Structures are given as C-alpha cells and as structure tokens.
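Class prep. Sample record?

___
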Amino acid sequence: MIHSMTAFARRGRRTDWGELVWEIRTVNHRYLEMGFRLPEDLRSLETACRKAISTRLRRGKVDCALKINFSDAAASDIQVNESLVDSLLERGGEVAARMKNPGQVSPLAVLRWPGVVAETERDLGPVEKAALALLDETLAALSEGRANEGARIRDMLLARCEAVSGHVVAVRERLPEVRERIREKVTAKLNELTAEFDRDRLEQELVMLAQKMDVDEELDRLESHITETRKVLDRKDAVGRRLDFLMQEFNREANTLASKSNDAETTRIAVDIKVLVEQMREQVQNVE
C-alpha cells in the first residue's frame, strides 16, 4: 500500500484542566523533516513527539502545532510571600515617619513588588501524558488520510501503466508495416535512377537502416518498466524513490522511441506515452 506525503489532520480533547488541540500538516519532501510549535511549558515533549512521528512516517515535511488552553478551574493559585510583605510594610513605615505628608501605600503596589507574588507550579504530568496520547490519535488520522490519497494515486498509476502498455502493443503491430514501407520507398527511389546499382549492397543498406530505426529494445524496456511499476505498487514499504527512478527510465525510453521513429503514427504514440509518463511523474512526487 502506498501513502501520499500530502495530508492534514486535526484532533482536540477537552479535560478537567483545559483543552488540547493538535494540528499536523505534511507535504512532499525528499526526506523526513519535522517542525514543531509547542507551548513553552511543553517544549520538553519535542523529543518524544519526534520519536512518535518517525515510527509512522518515512518521508515528508511535517509541521506540528500543539495548542493548549487551561480552564479557569485549573488556574494556578496565587501565593503571597507574607514575610516579604511584612518587611516591606515595616520599612515603608520607617520611611513614611521621615516624610512630610506621606501618601497611603496601595495594596496593589505591594503585590507588584518583585518576589511578593508567586504562582504555584502547575503539575504538567497529566498534561504531557494527554498531549502524547492525543498526538498518537492525530497521527493515526493523518496516516489514514495519507493511505486514502495513496490509494487514489495507485489507481491512477495503474491506469496510466495500462495505457502505456496499449501504446506499446500498437507500436509493435505497426513495425512490419513501417519496415515494409521503408523498403518500398527506397526501392522506388532507386528504380527511378537510370544507373545500375548493386542489389546485394541495397539489401545490406536496408538492413543497416532497419537496425538504426529498430525500436524493439525500447519497447521491451517499456514493458519491463510497466511490470516493475506494478510490482512496486504492491510493496508495503516506502516506494516513492523507486517510482521516481522508474519514471525517469520511462521518459528515457519514450524519448528514444520518438527520436528513432520514421513513422508519423509511431511518433504520435511516443508523444502520448511521454504525456502519460509526465502525469505519473507528477503524482509520484507525492508518494512516500
């Protein structure tokens, strides 16, 4: 089963302490490349996230974003450093005794003093566990989407292979007619000449010309590439690079077929094959 490298998945979960949301987007890339946008409190999860992703994906550029919104019920309690407040008030009273008409100290001003207020450290253990579990669910949804798109690409590639196979058969069926037409054309030109010519030498020249224009090897290799492509599409591992190589080979044989052709219909078929190969190549770029 082949997988597409282009997909998107989003999963969220509500808990007593708040809401988590994972968004993962993947596009085609030569290797597996990961990027993360994580809340500052959960930056330590990146290593575990990378490991989870690498167990499911082989290739592609992966962008992962985790959003977290803590509920009001989960807000951290505010702790006041009472000894520091007492010290501030005591020292403030001493300063006020030395001043004429001292102003009243605002409680909020005291709270803003560095070190007076401290938040209780939040227990992130349950949050981290929930985030990793939700990541696994999101990756499962992403993999399903990549597999579905991969199935569509596979059907398209098989259909194009079938079309190329039909074109190869058509060229083979034309070969005897093309060769005979070349012989007749050369013979007719020679018959127009008044000078005598060597019939044996003519046969040798016709054989050499036929060899120069022979496309049997190109047709054989095209059929071989079709067979190999069908086998690759049934493999379970990542096949994108292998398919990309096969598309290059397809294109090479189609170009050679066109360059050797001395028949308008064969040239047209070669162009049709090149169009089909280009359509396959574009889709193969997205295969993992």
Q: What stands out?
A: The longest strand covers residues 60-70. The mean pLDDT is 85. The chain has three domains: 7-73+128-146, 77-119, 148-284.
